[in-house]
Write a structure and sequence with these properties.
The chain has helices at 4-17, 50-59, 77-80, 83-90, 98-108, 165-171, 185-190, 195-202, 210-220, 240-248, and strands at 19-25, 32-37, 40-44, 69-71, 94-96, 114-116, 122-125, 128-134, 143-148, 153-157, 176-180, 227-231, 258-261, 271-272. It is of the alpha/beta class and 273 residues long. A hairpin with a 6-residue loop joins strand 1 and strand 2 (32-37).
């Protein structure tokens, strides 16, 4: 039998290596996710003010000094509005592809440092590998991300009007998945949005509805999928219980999977992947 101290050391080392994440907020008024592994912390998107992101990090016992990179999915305001200020104020490099940098340049302003990646390529940030994949949205070169440590993986896929084989391939190995459940089709049809905006949301370069997201999730659900966060819910065209019901209706076994819904106004607790 191993001495207790050796077991404890092994547990500490193992614990230290766990990847954790928190959705700091999600929806059309702002998006950001914090992911950490060991001494490395990154943000996917920074779609709140710098102050608000700091406040939400503090709410999960983390601070801006824990962030070593901001990885940006696309140039819409609800994903980049705090990227520039955080980059300058805290000397954090911003990672994005060329299309997003060019289209988001004015909004982000001067950056402390920027690192361009090719869509599809993997970049290393400390202990984390970040791989982008193309999604379908009305911006220059929108992406989702798979973030991992070589052993565990978290997928981030929002702001896409349709899903693809490539996306399924990239996301199928993930233990944790943050997936867009933007709207309920009936609510969108009968809701306050004028027709052109409804058409934009529904288009193949818009946002994913509950039904399509649930169908996609059923394709991705392997035995290893442990955490699903439903994200980017529309406040006008969706309700948490409808998003939740679309998953329950799949008639799959979720016994070993935690299901949660990202919120617009507060951070979810850190989850270990
Ligand atoms: Zn968005
Ligand atoms: Zn968007």
């Amino acid at each position: 039998m191993q001495p207790l101290s050796a077991v404890l050391v092994a547990l500490v080392i193992q614990g230290y290596r766990f990847m954790r994440f928190s959705v700091l907020g999600s929806g059309s008024r702002g998006n950001a996710v914090f992911i950490e592994n060991g001494s490395t912390g990154i943000l996917i998107d920074a779609g709140f003010s710098g102050k608000e992101i700091e406040k939400r990090l503090n709410s999960i016992d983390r601070e801006l000094a824990d962030v070593q990179a901001i990885c940006v999915t696309h140039e819409h305001n609800d994903h980049i509005c705090g990227a520039g200020v955080l980059s300058r104020r805290c000397k954090i490099p911003v990672y994005a592809n060329d299309g997003t940098f060019l289209a988001g340049e004015k909004r982000m302003g001067k950056l402390f440092h920027y690192k361009e990646f090719e869509t599809g390529a993997t970049v290393e940030v400390g202990d984390l590998q970040v791989r982008s994949f193309r999604v379908s949205h009305d911006t220059a070169d929108p992406v989702g991300f798979v973030v991992g440590d070589g052993d565990r993986y978290l997928g981030y896929c929002t702001d896409t009007g349709k899903v693809s084989h490539l996306m399924a391939q990239r996301l199928s190995k993930c233990q944790a998945l943050i997936l867009e459940f933007n709207h309920n089709l009936e609510m969108l049809k009968n809701g306050p949005y004028p027709l052109p905006l409804q058409q934009r949301v529904r288009s193949s370069r818009g946002h994913l509805c509950n039904e399509d997201a649930a169908k996609f999730l059923s394709q991705l659900k392997g035995a290893h999928l442990q955490h699903v966060v439903q994200a980017h819910l529309s406040e006008k065209n969706n309700r948490p219980e409808l998003a939740r019901r679309s998953i329950k209706e799949l008639d799959l076994d979720w016994t070993d999977t935690t299901l949660s819904i990202a919120e617009q106004d507060r951070a979810l607790e850190l989850v270990e992947v």
